[in-house]
Amino acid sequence: MANLSLKHIYKIYDDEVKAVNDFCMDIKDKEFIVFVGPSGCGKSTTLRMIAGLEEITAGELRIDDVIVNDLEPKDRNIAMVFQNYALYPHMSVYENMAFALKTAKVPKNIIEEKVKEAAEILGITQYLERKPKALSGGQRQRVALGRAIVRNPKVFLLDEPLSNLDAKLRAAMRAEISKLHEKLQTTFIYVTHDQVEAMTMGTRIVVMKDGFVQQIDTPKNLFKYPVNIFVAGFIGTPQMNFFDAKITKKDSLVRFELECGANISEEYAEIDKIPIGYMDGQIPVVVGIRPDDVKLDDVAYNEQEWGKADARVTLVESLGGETLIYADMNVKNTSDKHGIVVVKAGADSEIKKDDIIKVAIKKSNLYFFDKETQLNIKPRIPKENILDCVIKNGRLYFGKQELKLPPVFENLKSGECKIAVPPEAVVLGEGRAKAKISSAEVIEDKVLYRLEILNNDENFNGAPLFALELGKQCFDEGEKIVFDIDFSKVSIKEQNIEPIEKTNVLKCTFVKKRGDKKKYKFYFDIENQLLKADEAICEKLFASKGTQIFDIPLEMVFMPDSIEAEKYVSDGLDSIAGKVTDVFDYGMKCFAKVRVGSSDIIIMHKCEIGEKLSIRFNEKGFNVKDKTKDIIIV
Ligand code: ADP
Fold first, then answer.
1. Is the pLDDT score of 419 beyond 70?
2. With a 6 A CB cut-off, is 16 part of the ligand 1 pocket?
């Protein structure tokens, strides 16, 4: 039983191959975590770093809150099961399973008890006297698992343990490993390139690509809410079909115009999580359709829920129990783009190549991506609301609603503009902007409200306003609220306004100075200002770079609200001095631009221009980046 925490974990091989980049994850006790992704994406490397078989280049790995970066594999209380079983050929099954305990000098009677118990769990009691060569692949894999079980580890690591088995045995062993996890009530981490294994076994899955984590989520959420085209295409069999498309909106009706010639129409209210900016047909999008959401059309499928299209059959695959039909929606050759859908039909289907079929496509299960960024544009929590507004006399008007602009925006140009407001920037207010809760959706531990802005005039685009949590209060559908906007989080393209909260960066180096009794003390040198580095941070810096840490350019990286500032006290070593060069009063919050050496940083603090400040960093409020390799080391 164990919790694991992986913080900013990197692996760089031979000083250049970045096999794993900034892997961050907390794993709870008893979870079954699966790392999945194509070959070479960094899954095994991550697993081997957890096992201690591979050195961690940078980052912090904790098991049950103890940093284990430098612990030997045998001291981590972890058991690893490999793809090639790695059994000793000259030993019997019993001896193989007993080996680790024997080396650890565990008394004989306890070894016997543990081996017999594990053999019982795995159903291999009758083979205990056999040698591995007299066992089948599945039985050998069981012995390998048994060898891990007897050690009673806190964490089980399994690296593609089933890939040497044939398909049928793999399916059976998959179920057995899941059962084993249930029985042992221990944390499992399992590596595979097979998404079916991942989906059927994991409580949570980490999808990786090119050394980067793409998404960490439950199987259901990965399937329903993939963050990008890669995850959408990787998860699910047969694979999701993708179609280049554009989206247009006329009144309350939205059309998805696929380049292959097919069109699907949908009520705007059904897909209003897609930002309205995508609906003028200008931004290329990709529409994703899962084969399970395409049916052979018959009268059973109503127009309201199903889009319809003609398609020419290009391939028929009989799988015995069912038939897969590949059909191209570019029937009339109106486009040079093919639009292949895969449709599942019954075993006795008589459809053949070149037939023209009618397909029905489930509208509510369509997926939408930005073609350029590849990101899902209809995520569970929309990234931002786009409001069509007018700015006039220090006020913001949208529909017939209005909000007072904060002092920082007093000088904005009057006129029409689009303002991008993230859902977390919609807050309860006291002014004159009113809205009605039209729906509430619980997403993990948060509530996403869909608000209908009241008194819209005819020019208002009718887009809903999404708000993530509204203070501590809960609201019901139909309730009316007065809201405000946290303007520090908004962007207004036309006026070059961006959210003020951005990651701050200060150039620095790490230095040592002789202190009392000739003992060294360690500091960050931030452009000639010294800031004491506390012991825990020094330890981490030395752990990742050794004494080389004194020779490399570093960066301190932090958010505006993670540091403290006060009126300048003195040139202490626990703070650095900075001069306020600008202030930004957002009403609800105040920020200041502060000059430190040759850099400007933004902090959340109420002060005046020209004021001198002492700035303090708390241990958890910042990261340290190695500039030479562009990796976070603390
Ligand atoms: P996966 O398990 O996802 O197939 P790996 O973790 O084995 O991927 O490898 C990730 C990347 O690191 C690959 O590009 C691989 O070539 C590289 N790599 C793995 N081991 C080494 C090594 N010992 N030396 C150099 N590069 C390596």
1. yes
2. no
Q: How many residues does the chain have?
A: 634
With a 6 Å cutoff on the Cβ, whether 44 touches ligand 1 is yes
Least confident of 70-79, 143-152, 461-470: 461-470
CA angle 5, 7, 8 (to 5 degrees): 155
What are the pLDDT digits (tens) for 444-486?
889 999 999 876 555 455 788 999 999 888 999 999 999 999 9
Distance CA 216, CA 29 (A): 16
CA distance 288 to 375: 12
In angstroms, the Cα distances linking 9 to 2, 49, 58, 203, 624 are 19, 9, 6, 22, 13
Q: Is 246 in the pocket of ligand 1 (CB under 6 A)?
A: no
For residue 18 and ligand 1, the question of a CB distance below 6 A is answered with no
Query: Ligand 1 pocket: which of 23, 35, 36, 45 to mutate (most atoms <8 Å of CB)?
Result: 45
Q: For ligand 1, atom 2, which residue shows the shortest CA distance?
A: 44
Distance from the alpha carbon of residue 55 to the mean position of ligand 1, in angstroms: 13
- Edge-first strand order for the sheet with 446-453 is 426-428, 480-485, 434-443, 446-453, 465-468
Are the C-beta atoms of residues 210 and 20 closer than 8 Å to each other?
no
Rounded distance from Cα 17 to ligand 1 centre (Å)? 8
- For residue 537, give the nearest of 515, 514, 564, 510 by alpha carbon: 510
What is d(CA 279, CA 268) in angstroms, rounded to the nearest whole number? Answer: 10
Q: How many CA within 13 A on the CB side of residue 305? A: 10
**CA 38 – CA 464 distance, rounded (Å):** 39
Instruction: Assess whether the C-beta atom of 14 lies below 6 angstroms from ligand 1.
Output: yes
Query: For ligand 1, is residue 38 a contact (CB within 6 Å)?
Result: no
- Ligand 1 centroid to Cα of residue 19, in Å, is 6
Q: d(Cα 221, Cα 193) in Å, to the nearest integer?
A: 19
> Which structure tokens are listed for 438?
């039209």
**Atom in ligand 1 nearest the alpha carbon of residue 160:** 2
Residues 6 or more apart from 268 whose CB is under 8 A from it? 249, 252, 253, 254, 462
464, 479 in Cβ contact below 8 A? Answer: no
Of the listed ranges 34-38, 100-104, 461-465, the least confidently predicted one is: 461-465
Q: How many CA atoms lie within 13 A of 616 on its CB side?
A: 12
Q: What is the pLDDT of residue 532?
A: 93
| Element holding 33 (H helix, E strand) | strand 32-36
Stretch 389-405: mean pLDDT: 89
| Strand partners of residue 617 | 563
The answer for residues whose C-beta is within 8 angstroms of residue 101's C-beta and 6 or more apart is: 110, 111, 114, 115, 150, 151
N-term to C-term CA, the chain: 27
Residue 42 Cβ inside 6 Å of ligand 1? The answer reads yes
Average pLDDT over residues 336-363: 90
What token pair was written down for 368?
């939408």
Digit-coded pLDDT (tens) for 614-634: 999 987 889 999 998 889 988
pLDDT exceeds cutoff 90 at 604: yes
Q: Percent of the chain scored above 90 by pLDDT?
A: 71
Q: How many helices, marked H, and strands, marked E, lie in the chain?
A: 9, 40
Query: Which percentage of the chain shows pLDDT scores above 70?
Result: 98
Q: How far apart are CA 610 and CA 592, in angstroms?
A: 11
**pLDDT band (50, 70, 90) for residue 546:** confident
Structure tokens at 79: 């058991």
Q: What is the mean pLDDT of residues 239-248?
A: 95
Q: Which of 13, 189, 210 to mutate to test the pocket of ligand 1 (most atoms within 8 A of CB)?
A: 13
